[in-house]
């Protein structure tokens, strides 16, 4: 039976939610390996938080994440004042003197998290800019849902499963912010577009020159960049995509080998079978028997 007290929940602003992990809860959580990697010590949502402010001469042991949804506020850190506006956020590093507060004219509505753990420094580094500037965040309701789910988990009994789930949801939330540019750049880069081009032309036989021209690179530069990204030469990768597609045909259709060859751009069934076995480790017929 769980006799530990529930986390402390305070009220200060109309509609506010605030959960602070008690010493007893923290002691229990420390028994879980996930806790040491990343965990919130406190989390809250302050809507229309007029006169909200904090000042800490020596900072605190946790990182502080501030996410403004509406209104405005400010953060003073390292001799600089950062303005926090709607859809911007900032992380104050551990043990760093700081002050922050809501605008008196246009009070902010913010989510905030105090977090720590082995992953905290890396997430802070990935999120922050060298110039200590507020980071713009495209509004995404799924992120708000994650924050509310973390709060709900911490408001209730502190079971092992909820400790673990809190850890994973916090990772999901912070990583969605810290690596959003990486994901966007990956989607937009020319090599990714080239791979997408390959996937829509599996019936064809594409030369390295055609692929390089499509990506607006010389053959040598295209081949270099492609291998850096994928670990394969462009033609090797294209063949792998063809073989992967042929596996789908073998699994989910009644097409024979000759028909599959036509669908994935192989003129010679024997060459297709040789490439298939090299990549999959089985002949096409052996693969079909194994998976059906």
TrEMBL record:
Ranges for domain HTH araC/xylS-type: 192-290
Keywords: DNA-binding, Transcription, Transcription regulation
Keyword Transmembrane helix: no
A Pfam family: HTH_18
SMART domains recorded: HTH_ARAC
Xref: PANTHER family: ARAC-FAMILY TRANSCRIPTIONAL REGULATOR (PTHR43280), MMSAB OPERON REGULATORY PROTEIN (PTHR43280:SF30)
UniProt protein name: AraC family transcriptional regulator
Species this chain originates from: Flavobacterium sufflavum
């Amino acid at each position: 039976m769980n006799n530990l007290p529930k986390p402390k929940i305070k009220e200060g602003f109309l509609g506010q939610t605030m959960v602070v992990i008690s010493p007893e809860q923290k002691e229990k959580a420390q028994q879980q390996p996930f806790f040491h990697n990343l965990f919130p010590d406190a989390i809250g949502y302050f809507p229309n938080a007029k006169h909200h402010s904090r000042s800490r001469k020596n900072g605190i042991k946790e990182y502080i994440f501030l996410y403004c949804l509406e209104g405005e506020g400010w953060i003073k850190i390292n001799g600089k004042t950062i303005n926090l506006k709607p859809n911007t956020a900032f992380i104050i590093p551990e043990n760093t003197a700081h002050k922050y507060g809501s605008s008196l004219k246009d009070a902010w509505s913010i989510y905030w998290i105090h977090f720590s753990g082995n992953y905290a420094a890396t997430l802070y580094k990935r999120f922050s800019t060298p110039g200590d500037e507020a980071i713009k965040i495209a509004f995404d309701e799924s992120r708000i849902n994650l924050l509310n789910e973390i709060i709900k988990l911490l408001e209730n009994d502190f079971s092992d499963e909820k400790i673990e789930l809190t850890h994973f949801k916090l990772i999901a939330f912070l990583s969605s912010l810290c690596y959003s540019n990486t994901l966007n750049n990956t989607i937009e880069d020319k090599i990714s577009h080239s791979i997408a081009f390959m996937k829509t032309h599996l019936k064809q036989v594409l030369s390295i020159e055609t692929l390089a021209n499509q990506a607006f690179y010389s053959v040598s530069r295209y081949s270099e960049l492609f291998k850096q990204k994928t670990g394969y030469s462009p033609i090797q990768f294209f063949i792998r995509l063809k073989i992967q597609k042929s596996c789908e045909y073998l699994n989910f259709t009644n097409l024979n080998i000759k028909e599959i060859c036509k669908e994935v751009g192989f003129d010679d069934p024997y060459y297709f079978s040789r490439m298939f076995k090299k990549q999959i480790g089985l002949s096409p017929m052996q693969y079909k028997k194994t998976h059906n």
